[in-house]
Amino acid sequence: MLHRLSDKNTILNQFVAEIRDVNVQSDRMRFRKNLERIGQVIAYEISSYLTFESNQVETPLGISNCELPSDRIVLATILRAGLPLHNGLLSYFDKADNAFVSAYRQHHKDGTFEIKMQYMTCPSIEDAILVISDPMLATGASMQQTISAVLDHGKPKQIHIAIGIASSNGINYIERHYPDAHLWVAAEDEELTAKSYIVPGLGDAGDLAYGSKLQD
Q1: Greatest alpha-carbon span in the chain
Q2: What is the pTM of this model?
Q3: Distance of CA 21 to CAs 10, 97, 197, Å?
Q4: Please, are residues 96 and 90 in contact by the beta-carbon 8 Å criterion?
Q5: Does domain 2-50+71-210 correspond to CATH entry 3.40.50.2020?
Q6: Quick check: 183 and 172 in contact, CB under 8 A?
Q7: pLDDT tens-digit profile of 34-77?
Q8: Rounded to whole angstroms, how far apart are CA atoms 69 and 146?
């Protein structure tokens, strides 16, 4: 199920505009902060799909009945670019367990690439709410491989995929592979170049958040 948050005008539009803006991107701290804010907005939206139970909370003047989320949540992200978005989700789901996956594009001289996975640490996701985040969804290949690897650790109750900017091709790819998952997208771009870069996109989210790297 696709949830395209840009379909309605909210403060999220400002955060998305600033991560795209070349005049703002030079401020790495603000770039990371805006990705965190996008993660927080998505976390709030996801929370409406959680299970809630009645709890009594003692105040200085009495007892308050509160409906509180009861699901176990596992937050997973793709290193390194996914960390700021992940931190935004974690600031709302602060009791969540966490998983981290290292996946990257290994480029070839002919312009093609394949997805390489080098590292993963993951708790059991059996009957948990699984939330996987990445700031960009281009072809969807790295996300699909990441989800597949994480699912080796159990069968989740729900799957939520949190994305900053997604291509239409990437959205279609993920919907074909995981039709029951909730796909949360802050903004959708229609164009994907021959080298699988999103246009207009925002550039390399990992480099903008943490600095350029030597290897492609």
Answers
A1: 70
A2: 0.91
A3: 18, 33, 17
A4: yes
A5: yes
A6: no
A7: 999 999 999 999 999 999 999 999 999 999 999 999 999 999 99
A8: 26
